[in-house]
């Protein structure tokens, strides 16, 4: 079933089962796996989704339309999602809801300080938690009347999207394994791995991030991470 079929199916559900009907959500997320989870959550909530994988792409979207909701990953390949959050929090008109997301929960306060109304820690799989975070941040005139009955379920992204993320990481390692790139890669792979429950990859990404912060040599940790990425690319079924 493609996006249009899923969205059409969502329209046939009672309003209480699609509380985000009428909202357009711009998701700025470089991980295909995390974005697939958000796509499923949006479709099951009745919302339309637009996607951008970097700041440049997000800003192109914003030149054309203003979404109802922005969900921006903090770590992006061409900069920090906090910069985009800061820009839109001060814009007029601005999105009704601005949320930040990351696999690193310590970034929540920085996101709130930048102007986000809330923080979604990865993995984002709970339908009820996703809907509640958006609904609770809507302005009063857009709130649903009466009590809200949120129906909880979890989404399971297609692991082909996980392999796409591994391919992206391998390309980054092959093209530009410099310090700034390794900082982005450690953050990217750590978030993806935690979203997918891939403990060994998450631990390797965290080791690389710690070594970089402490100014230690990165060759061994980078090689370990590259080997784990390659292993996952060679598997027919990830994890």
UniProtKB/TrEMBL annotation:
Positions of the Response regulatory domain: 24-137
Protein name (Swiss-Prot/TrEMBL): Response regulator
GO BP, one annotated term: phosphorelay signal transduction system
Modified residues (4-aspartylphosphate): 73
Organism this protein belongs to: Leisingera methylohalidivorans DSM 14336
Pfam family, one: Response_reg
Domain of life the protein comes from: Bacteria
Annotated Gene3D superfamilies: 3.40.50.2300
InterPro entries recorded: Bact_response_regulator, CheY-like_superfamily, Sig_transdc_resp-reg_receiver
PANTHER family registered for this protein in UniProt: RESPONSE REGULATORY DOMAIN-CONTAINING PROTEIN (PTHR44591:SF3), STRESS RESPONSE REGULATOR PROTEIN 1 (PTHR44591)
Keyword annotations from UniProtKB, A to Z: Phosphoprotein
